[in-house]
Amino acid sequence: MPAPRTVLLTGAAGGLGSLMQNLLPAFGYELRLLDLRPIHGEPNAIVADLADKDAVREAVRGVDAIIHLAGISLEAPFEKILGANIVGTYNLYEAAREEGIERIVFASSNHAVGFTPRPQGDDPLIPIDTPHRPDTFYGLSKSFGEDLAQFYWDKHGIETVSVRIGSCFPEPTSVRMLSVWMSPADGARLFHAALTAEGVGHTVVYGSSANTRLWWDLTTARALGYDPQDDSEPYAEKLIAEQGELDPENVAHACLGGHFVSDPPIWPY
Fold first, then answer.
1. pLDDT digits (tens, 9 = 90+) for 174-200
2. What is the rounded CA–CA span in Å between residue 160 and residue 60?
3. 174: three-class secondary structure by DSSP
4. What is the model's pLDDT at position 4?
5. Adjacent-strand bridge partners of 104
6. Which residues have a catalytic role annotated?
7. Count of alpha carbons within 13 Å of 252, Cβ hemisphere only?
8. At what angle do helices 184-196 and 15-23 cross, to 10 degrees?
């Protein structure tokens, strides 16, 4: 497909959205920003709830592609997850269909497969076709989002790259994160690849840097043209000295989803 020029970035005020606001324009994109709350320093950003179908359709009108980061990113009661992550994502896909948008990049999560055992020793990397094993209602909503993307590709021809994001922060903050960390710069590289690769249909990829301690297979991400440049290993010695190695007898350490499987962080709003 032609390289998109104007991209709707939902969830632009969030942690990942704020990082991408600064990094994606260098790839030549004009970003249209959307969030549920005003974005500091961005008076032209769209303030809208994805539950508002008319507002969502207006937001997508005229863009070339969408990066969908909006929604609840931690655990919450199902009713809240349902509105923000499930109904909201459906509304976005319906608006994209109505407006003829051909490409969406969906921020899925490793928590869609969070109960998957993490590799240990000589275990192989976790493949992209590992079955959904959500660890929370949040993870369940990401499983739904991936299936919704598949449906809209099969039914309506809207292409999606679903990115099972690990943890995208300026630097890793835990021993677990050494395996799932995606540097912001690599995150921008991956989103750019997802926006511009040809013939993706519905493609699911894991989202991380090329970490020495990597747990999952990046083959489908690399097939898009993603070339990660960063590795969490320079942070390993300090984090392990502070926190110790992961304990395979601890369920929070033994599963891909970490403490989401046992004591998930709760959405504060």
1. 999 999 999 999 999 999 999 999 999
2. 15
3. coil
4. 72
5. 66, 160
6. 138
7. 11
8. 70
